[in-house]
Amino acid sequence: MLNGKYSMNQESSNSKNDFLNPVNKYYGKFTPGNLAFNANLQEFANQVSYICNLETNGKITSDEAYDKIKQLWKALKKSKTELLDQNNQSNS
């Protein structure tokens, strides 16, 4: 950063990252767990999209795509359990 402004490379890099990994605002009931899970869910959706595109274009096999998505799903389920289910139990 120069004088509080981004250099051309930093702007380009940020724009590219924002385009490739979009993040939408969260409008639900605010809790730290809900916010974190929403971020994880958006990341899951982006990664599944990339995996599907790789498989569609023949870069990876259907079995590889399935295995990668299955791993991501397990991680998302674990995230839900840790962030949402424990939060709901403590509020009961």
Notes on the structure:
With 92 residues, the chain is mainly α. The chain has a domain at 32-91. The protein is built from three helices and no strands. The N and C termini lie far apart (48 Å). The model has no long low-confidence stretch (mean pLDDT 85).
Rg calc: 18 Å
What is the β-strand count? 0
Provide a count of the helices. 3
Strand content: under 5%
Q: Please report the distance between the alpha carbons of the first and last residues.
A: 48 Å
**What structural category arises from helix and sheet content?**
mainly alpha
Helix percent reads: over 70%
SSE series? HHH
Shape: flat
Task: Give a topology summary.
Blueprint (H helix, E strand, L loop, with lengths): L7 H13 L11 H25 L5 H30 L1
Helix pairs in contact: 2-3
Salient structural properties:
92 residues, mainly alpha, 3 helices, 0% strand, flat
In short:
74% of the residues lie in helices and 0% in strands. It is built from three helices and no strands.
